[in-house]
C-alpha cells in the first residue's frame, strides 16, 4: 500500500493568512502551503505592512485589527485568492492602495466583488478594464450594511465579503442570488468561526456580526484538490493509495472527488483522519454523468482519466471553469484531442468518449491543473510531455518529484 503526504491546502492557507492579519494578537499557522500562490499572498501582506515569520512548517503573523494603515502597491501574481481577498483587507484599512496581477489573473473577472464593495461605499476604481485588475482603492474603513451578490461565476466574491464582515462597523448582511463552488464558502464560514467571528446563514442570506477576529493556532489540512491527482492515479492503475490528514472532518469539498471515483468502480474508505482509494482491477473504470459545480477544480482530473472508462464520461455544470487559469473546458478538450480522444464540449459541459490515448506534446496553458491532471494520464500513456511543466508551482512546486517517486515505486513493485 502506498501513502502520499500532500502539502497544505491553498484555500485554507489563504483564508488563514487573511484571518491572522485581521485578528487581534499573534497567529501561528501549522503546515501551511508554500507555493507561488501563498508566497504571493504573504508578499502582498508584507507590502500592506504586516509582519510574518516563516519557518518551513510554522508561520507566525502579527495581527492588526485596524487594517493596513499606509499607502501600498500589491502585486497578486496568478492567485485569485490573493487578488480577490487582499483588496477587501485593504478596503477595511486606511490609505491609498493599488492592486495589480499577472496577465492571466488580469483576464479573470472580479466585477461582482468590486461592485459590492462600491455598494458598501468603498472608493474603488478599475485602472483599465472595468471589473478587472489593476485597481485602486482609497480606503477609509467600511461601515457595513446589506448587499446583494451574484456569486455564480466565483464563490471567492462571497468569501471575500464574508471575511470583510467582522471588520465593518455595523456588520454585513449578504443576500446571494447564485453560488458556484459552494463548499468553499463552508470552509470560509468554519474558519471565520475558528478565529472568533459570528456568522449565520439562513438559506441565501448570510449575516456577519461586527467585532473583529481573535488570533489562533491553526493547523492547515492537506490540499484536497492536489490529492485528487493521487486518488485518480490509484483508480487508473488498480492500486491502493492512502492520503493521511484528510478524513471525515476535512473542510474541503474537493475531497468529494473520491465519491466520483467510487461511482466509477474504485473502493473508497474515508476514515477519521485519512482517505484510501483502491482502483478496480486493471484500472477498468466505468463511465458516468456527473455534476461538478461544487468541486470543479477536480474537473480536469476526471477529464484526464476519462478516456480509460468503459463508457462516456460527461461532466456537467462547470461553466465557471472557463474563467480559471485558462478556459479549462477548451483546454481539456484540446489536450484530449491531441491524445487522439473523441470529445465534445458545450457552454458548461464536456463529454469524453472511451479511447486509447497516444502519447504526445500537450499544452499547459500556464495552468497547474492541466499539467498535474494529464500527468495522471501519463501513468498509462507513455510519451506525454508539457510545454510548461513548471507551472505546477502555483499550488505544488514539488509535484513532479513526488509524482515521479510514486511512478518509480509502482514500477518497481510491478
Ligand atoms: O475560495 C477558494 O479558495 C477557491 C474557490 C474556488 O474558486 P471559484 O469559487 O472561483 O470557483 C476554487 O476553484 C479555487 O481554486 C479556490
Ligand atoms: C482556480 C484555481 O485557483 P484560483 O482561483 O485560486 O486562482 C485553482 O487552483 O484551480
Describe the overall structure.
The strands form seven sheets. Strands 1-16-18-17 form a four-stranded mixed β-sheet, with helices on one face. The chain has a four-stranded mixed β-sheet with strand order 4-5-3-15, with helices on one face. It has a four-stranded mixed β-sheet with strand order 6-7-9-8, covered by helices on one side. The model has no long low-confidence stretch (mean pLDDT about 100). The radius of gyration is 21 Å and the shape is globular. Helix 5 packs parallel to helix 6. The chain contains 13 helices and 24 strands. By secondary structure, it is α/β, with parallel strands linked by helices. It starts with a strand and ends with a helix. The structure holds shikimate-3-phosphate and phosphoenolpyruvate. Shikimate-3-phosphate binds next to helix 1 and helix 6. The site of shikimate-3-phosphate has 12 residues, from helix 1 and helix 6.
Strand order of the largest sheet: 1-16-18-17
* Overall body shape: globular
Determine the fraction of residues in helical runs and give it as a percent range.
Answer: 25-40%
Radius of gyration: 21 Å
Structural class: alpha/beta
- Distance N to C terminus: 13 Å
Largest sheet: 4 strands, mixed
Q: What small molecules accompany the polymer chains?
A: shikimate-3-phosphate, phosphoenolpyruvate
Number of helices: 13
Main location: cytoplasm
Active site: 297 (proton acceptor)
Keywords: Amino-acid biosynthesis, Aromatic amino acid biosynthesis, Cytoplasm, Transferase
Organism: Kitasatospora purpeofusca
Amino acid at each position: 500500500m502506498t501513502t502520499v503526504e500532500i502539502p497544505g491546502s491553498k484555500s485554507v492557507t489563504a483564508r488563514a493568512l487573511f484571518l491572522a492579519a485581521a485578528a487581534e494578537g499573534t497567529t501561528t499557522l501549522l503546515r501551511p502551503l508554500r507555493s507561488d500562490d501563498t508566497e504571493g499572498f504573504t508578499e502582498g501582506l508584507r507590502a500592506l505592512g504586516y509582519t510574518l515569520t516563516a519557518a518551513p512548517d510554522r508561520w507566525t503573523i502579527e495581527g492588526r485589527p485596524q487594517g493596513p494603515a499606509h499607502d501600498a502597491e500589491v502585486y497578486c501574481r496568478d492567485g485569485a485568492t490573493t487578488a480577490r481577498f487582499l483588496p477587501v483587507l485593504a478596503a477595511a484599512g486606511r490609505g491609498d492602495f493599488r492592486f495589480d496581477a499577472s496577465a492571466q489573473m488580469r483576464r479573470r473577472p472580479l466585477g461582482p466583488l468590486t461592485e459590492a464593495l462600491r455598494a458598501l461605499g468603498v472608493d474603488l476604481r478599475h485602472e483599465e478594464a472595468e471589473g478587472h485588475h489593476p485597481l485602486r482603492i482609497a480606503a477609509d474603513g467600511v461601515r457595513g450594511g446589506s448587499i446583494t451578490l451574484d456569486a455564480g461565476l466565483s464563490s471567492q466574491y462571497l468569501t471575500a465579503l464574508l471575511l470583510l464582515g467582522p471588520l465593518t462597523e455595523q456588520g454585513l448582511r449578504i443576500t446571494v442570488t447564485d453560488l458556484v463552488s459552494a463548499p468553499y464558502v463552508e470552509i470560509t464560514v468554519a474558519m471565520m468561526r475558528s478565529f472568533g467571528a459570528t456568522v449565520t446563514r439562513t438559506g441565501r442570506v448570510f449575516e456577519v456580526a461586527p467585532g473583529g477576529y481573535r488570533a489562533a493556532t491553526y493547523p492547515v489540512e492537506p490540499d484536497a484538490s492536489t490529492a485528487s491527482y493521487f486518488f485518480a492515479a490509484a483508480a487508473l492503475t488498480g492500486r491502493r493509495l492512502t492520503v493521511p490528514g484528510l478524513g471525515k472532518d476535512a473542510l474541503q469539498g474537493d475531497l468529494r472527488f473520491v465519491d466520483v471515483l467510487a461511482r466509477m468502480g474504485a473502493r473508497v474508505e474515508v476514515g477519521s483522519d485519512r482517505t484510501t482509494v483502491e482502483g478496480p482491477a486493471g484500472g477498468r473504470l466505468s463511465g458516468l454523468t456527473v455534476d461538478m459545480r461544487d468541486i470543479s477544480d477536480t474537473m480536469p482530473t476526471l477529464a484526464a482519466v476519462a478516456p480509460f472508462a468503459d463508457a462516456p464520461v460527461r461532466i456537467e455544470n462547470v461553466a465557471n471553469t472557463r474563467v480559471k487559469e485558462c478556459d479549462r473546458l477548451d483546454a481539456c478538450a484540446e489536450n484530449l484531442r491531441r491524445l487522439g480522444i473523441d470529445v465534445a464540449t458545450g457552454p458548461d459541459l464536456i463529454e469524453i468518449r472511451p479511447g486509447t490515448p497516444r502519447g504526445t506534446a500537450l499544452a499547459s496553458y500556464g495552468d497547474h491543473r492541466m499539467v498535474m491532471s494529464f500527468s495522471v494520464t501519463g501513468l498509462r500513456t507513455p510519451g506525454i510531455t508539457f510545454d510548461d511543466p513548471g507551472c505546477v508551482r502555483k499550488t505544488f512546486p514539488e509535484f513532479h518529484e513526488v509524482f515521479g517517486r510514486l511512478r518509480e515505486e509502482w514500477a518497481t513493485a510491478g
